[in-house]
Amino acid sequence: MDYETKIKQLADKKEMYAVTYRQLQAVTGVSYKNLGKILSGKRKAGDRMLNKIETALERLNPNAPLEIIFDYVRIRFPTDDVEHILRDILKINPKYMIHEEHAFYGYSEQYILGDIVVMADTLDLEKGVLLELKGKGCRQFESCLLAQDRSWYDFFKPILDHENAVFKRIDIAINDRAGLLDIPFLASKCEAGECISMFRAFRYYASGELKKRDEKIGMGNTLYIGSLQSDIYFCIYEKDMEQYIKRGLDVKESDVKNRFEIRLKNDRAYLAINDILCYRNPFQTAFSIINRYIRFADWQEDVDRRNWKTNEIWKMFIGDEGTDIRLTMKPEPYTLEKTKNWIARQVAPSLKLLLTLDEIHGVDEIEEIINNAKLTDKQKKLLEQQTEVANQNIITE
Fold first, then answer.
1. Domain boundaries, the chain
2. pLDDT tens, 330-361?
3. Which are the contacts of 234, defined by CB distance < 8 A and separation ≥ 6?
4. Are 226 and 234 within 8 A, CB to CB?
5. Which CATH architecture has domain 3-59?
6. What is the pTM of this model?
7. Residue 344: is it exposed, middle or buried by C-beta count within 10 angstroms (0-12/13-18/19+)?
8. Helix 152-162 to helix 135-147 angle, to the nearest 10 degrees?
9. Closest CA to 277 of 166, 138, 154, 142
């Protein structure tokens, strides 16, 4: 592509995305006057500068908006009636759940469907029943909700109205699909005192640094704002790098660049869910929490830091009250992908070696071993879960 064509393409993209030169300046660090001269063809720019402008325009692409999802749900129900929670709250047929006589958090048993976990305790009934949905569990439960013709609103409302439940933890995740959040940049703002915050603590880990046991590992650049022991703190990290590290996915193919997680516990979690149900505006709930606790500003000499101007890039992220960001569902069915990946990495090479030796020696020892293998009760239940008619494990009204 020749230079003139490239400039026209960038200028057209700027107009199509309705990006101002001031916005472009905030993202590129290049003055808006120079940007104007470059995109009007009055000043020549090198490939590096053109790539910087193109990257900035894509970060400001209105067709790659923010989205809000639930990424962790932990609720304690003050009852010993596990079947009620499964059938009436989750609306999942207990017949298709794996039962195990061990669990976390001091519970003695758990019921599992993929990453959907419900815990109970036959010895201490006062513990109640605990529902835990981590990230994968939320996505899998959304598959159930869709099959039931329900939403998260439909799920949470009867819990708040009738169950007297305790919201132990709720994570609200804002997916930055456009790449507006620059984690190293935000970390530098924290270090320079340009994060005006109610929190006193922040931690920044560059990509590849070892994390402590109570923090996520392998998330690329990661910034924690607030104490991990408090009832509210924020975690901002590179989602595309996390997917690359965990699953080997090309960062260029990731539909989410960065993630801003609002992690809430106990009363903070309850109030957030109540607010979302009241106003049906998750953007308002999420960003009112963010704006209450942090604001990234630009240093100004002889001005009280509380009055420093809000950073332009941060303004683009927090948007305004008229911004429409819906609560998004990203359902994923439960599969044995993790088991298959483990076999591919750990078992398949040895299995191939043994099968090759069997072929050389003219025997069928490995095939015989596989044929004589006995499935455990848990494996039989997994087989049942994977082969039943779709949605048969779901209870619909």
1. 3-59, 172-318
2. 667 666 666 677 677 777 888 888 888 888 88
3. 224, 225, 226, 260, 261, 262, 263, 290, 293, 294
4. yes
5. Orthogonal Bundle (1.10)
6. 0.76
7. exposed
8. 100
9. 154
